[in-house]
Design goal:
alpha/beta; Alpha-Beta Plaits; Rossmann fold; 4-stranded antiparallel β-sheet; 14 strands; about 30% helix
Length: about 290
Amino acid sequence: MAWDQISITVPHEFVEPISHVFERYGHGVGIQSLNKLDAEITTFLPSGSDSRLARIEIGVNLAKSITSMGDLQISPLDNETDWRNAWKDHFSVLHITDRIVIKPSWIDYVANESELIIEIDPGFAFGTGYHPTTHSCLALLETHITQGAEILDLGTGSGILSIAAAKLGAANVIGLDIDPLCVKAANNNAKTCGVTSITQFVTGSLPSEKIHHNNYDCVVANISSRIGIEKSVDILEVLKPSGILILSGIINNQALSTINHFESIAIVENHYWKDDWVTFLIRKQETQDENNE
């Protein structure tokens, strides 16, 4: 069978939505960072897959209506390579910290005694550790999760942050996502990683009848500045007094507006830059709920 390689160069903030489209309609996804601003995303299609290619083009054109990016490149490939699996060459074992290690299912890896292995394959559900925001959230979870903590993962995507929280010692973790496909993927990933007794994934967002006020030690939200600000009051309401919010998905030019908003309602303890992305560590005030009444 003849195959075509489909690729495009996009800004880093559009890696996950475009890779979502590529994975949904192509065969596998490869992501290669080109520089601090751009990355190349690649997938493969059997030659003549006009319907699938058209859907990819629709997704790309929608993204182009928001920001500038490269043109879709279509290149025919030879017939001697297994192009269904060629995309896997773009991924390897990823050491987030000295403890947290992410590995794809097709790679054998022997962990040392101190390492926590998260086995998760790159796919259409957002979050595989290869994006700077996911990387930063994982590192902060390791630092701030205490044994027996109650965790809420807002915008769970692949479930990677929920899985990490469970492996780091959380007692209960709930992951919320508005996309039922993400919830399904997160459940499957949690099963693979052996943490289904600790994690629960639910379709929806805040506010939610299933999420109680003053119940969570930590909310991790790898979303966006806009959604973070829109949901800020809802997030603070579900946190325990002095609970922490790890907020990421924020591009550098949105950092100041995000800081200004959260400083008016909570304590912004720190911020962390990785490439062009920023992650905030925000603490709910001990008297937060009294102040909101």
